[in-house]
Amino acid sequence: MKFHRLYVMTATIAALVAPGLAxxxxxxxxxxxxxxxxxxxxxxxxxxxxxxxxxxxxxxxAKLSYDEYVELSSFSRSAAxxxxxxxxxxxxxxxxxxxxxxxxxxxxxxxxCFIK
Length: 116
Hints:
The chain is mainly alpha-helical and about 120 residues long. It has one domain. About 80% of the residues lie in helices and about 0% in strands. It has 6 helices and no strands. The chain has helices at about 1-25, 30-40, 50-65, 65-80, 85-90, 95-110. Helix 3 packs across helix 6 (about 95-110) and helix 4 packs across helix 6 (about 95-110). The protein is globular. The N and C termini lie far apart (about 55 Å).
């Protein structure tokens, strides 16, 4: 009988914890690697940033779902474009809020990962 209770308790805990773990790790591996490689390249290919950039995408993934990340990072990249093409994205309140939210998350995550 003790074995049965232990089994039920373990299964219950696993069922409660598993959705949170899955949500924190819903970024495809290829997207994480692409982000980390771009980040490393931005910091002069310094080997130290392999760990820091991996930390950065992990921190971002903990705060955003993958769909949110794609949307917010796309707005941020588009708004950074120069000229008329970027102006289309800079002009709306929705885009401004999305860029502000994304850059805030990135900034906070950089601090946690010791990236200047």
